[in-house]
Write a structure and sequence with these properties.
Blueprint: H1 9-22, E1 45-54, E2 58-68, E3 73-84, E4 89-102, E5 111-124, E6 132-137
Antiparallel strand pairs: 1-2, 2-3, 3-4, 4-5, 5-6
């Protein structure tokens, strides 16, 4: 019994058309807002995730402390600060909770739940002495 067959000319043409339509076009969009791994901190412990990322407009600083005060829930309360070359600064205040229902094990599927919220604050220097705050909720 032969499971693989050659495509007809019509099927080949259809595959090429679909591949052409599915080809990704360039986009001017931001990267992921907040991306987190599936693991949680050990029970009754804390961890600090911090890094700095440079881009064309400026840089971003991430400071995300997380604690697991219970057996299986990790809580994060942190901040992401962005500075752009024109002097405008942005801040994301973040709160998040996550758990793993089925732990990560080799060659098995694990699953969990993560939810959170942010408050986006834009700092625009109106003058050198002061800044105007704008709050946006997501």
């Amino acid at each position: 019994m032969k499971l693989v067959r050659e495509l007809t000319k019509k099927e080949t043409l259809l595959c090429l058309v679909l591949a052409g339509l599915a080809h990704p076009l360039p986009a001017n969009a931001a990267g992921p807002f907040v991306t987190d791994d599936a693991a949680i901190a050990a029970p009754h412990s804390c961890q600090l995730e911090a890094w700095k990322r440079f881009n064309r407009q400026g840089y971003e600083v991430f400071v995300l402390p997380a604690c697991n005060p219970f057996e299986n829930w990790e809580m994060t309360l942190g901040q992401i600060s962005t500075t752009v070359t024109e002097g405008e600064r942005e801040r994301q205040n973040l709160i998040q909770a996550k758990t793993v229902f089925r732990p990560i094990q080799p060659e098995q599927i694990a699953w969990g739940l993560s939810f959170g919220s942010t408050i986006h604050v834009i700092l625009r220097p109106a003058r050198k002495e002061s800044a105007r705050f704008t709050r946006m909720f997501h």
